[in-house]
């Protein structure tokens, strides 16, 4: 299943995944929305249950809006975004970091935003996109080469499966 089910099940007929079932407990709330999508405050984190690299963050309200997320630390173990603690305080702990990925038809141009990670507390179901102060991180990091070098990861179709 794409999401764990608890409580009353809701359905959303999405553009990319067809019909998904989820409950209120599956919703991650971004109180300020996301940059460029301030009105989108509720998302469901989807995975195939076997892949710990790629995820999808589907809007719980907009069937056409989903972001591809990557667990960058699985590929770039040195990734350590420096974020002001005030930006993370109300999220609580533990925190998981994801990065928005752009998956073009030409996978060699797969890129991720290292500068502005998505931070999620899966326990409190709160999230926020923050900006890292690290100078070395950019918004367009081409990651295909690092993915290809990792023998445990397949990039046959851009989903890591």
Protein architecture, described:
With about 160 residues, the protein is mainly β. The chain has one helix spanning about 145-150, and strands spanning about 10-15, 20, 25-30, 40-45, 55-60, 65-70, 95-100, 110, 120, 125-130, 140. The strands form two sheets. Strands 3, 4, 5, 6, 7, 8, 9, 10 and 11 form a nine-stranded antiparallel beta sheet that branches. Strand 9 and strand 10 (about 125-130) form a beta hairpin. The two termini are about 15 Å apart.
Descriptive keywords:
161 residues; mainly beta; nine-stranded antiparallel sheet; two-stranded antiparallel sheet; 11 strands; disordered N terminus; disordered C terminus
In short:
The protein has 161 residues and is mainly beta. Helix content is 4%, strand content 30%. The longest helix is centred in the last third of the chain and has 6 residues, at 144-149.
């Amino acid at each position: 299943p794409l999401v764990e089910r608890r409580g009353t099940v809701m359905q959303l007929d999405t553009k990319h995944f067809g019909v998904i079932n989820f409950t209120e407990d599956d919703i991650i709330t971004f109180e300020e929305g996301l940059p460029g999508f301030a009105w989108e405050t509720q998302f469901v984190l989807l995975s195939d249950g076997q892949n710990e690299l790629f995820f999808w963050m589907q809007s719980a309200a907009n069937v056409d809006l989903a972001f591809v997320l990557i667990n960058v630390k699985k590929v770039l173990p040195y990734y350590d975004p420096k974020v002001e603690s005030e930006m993370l305080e109300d999220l609580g702990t533990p925190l998981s970091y994801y990065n928005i990925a752009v998956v073009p038809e030409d996978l060699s141009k797969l890129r991720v935003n290292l500068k502005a990670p998505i931070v999620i507390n899966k326990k409190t179901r709160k999230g926020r996109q923050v900006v890292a102060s690290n100078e070395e991180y950019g918004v367009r990091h081409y990651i295909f080469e690092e993915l290809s070098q990792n023998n445990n990861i397949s990039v046959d179709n851009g989903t890591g499966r």
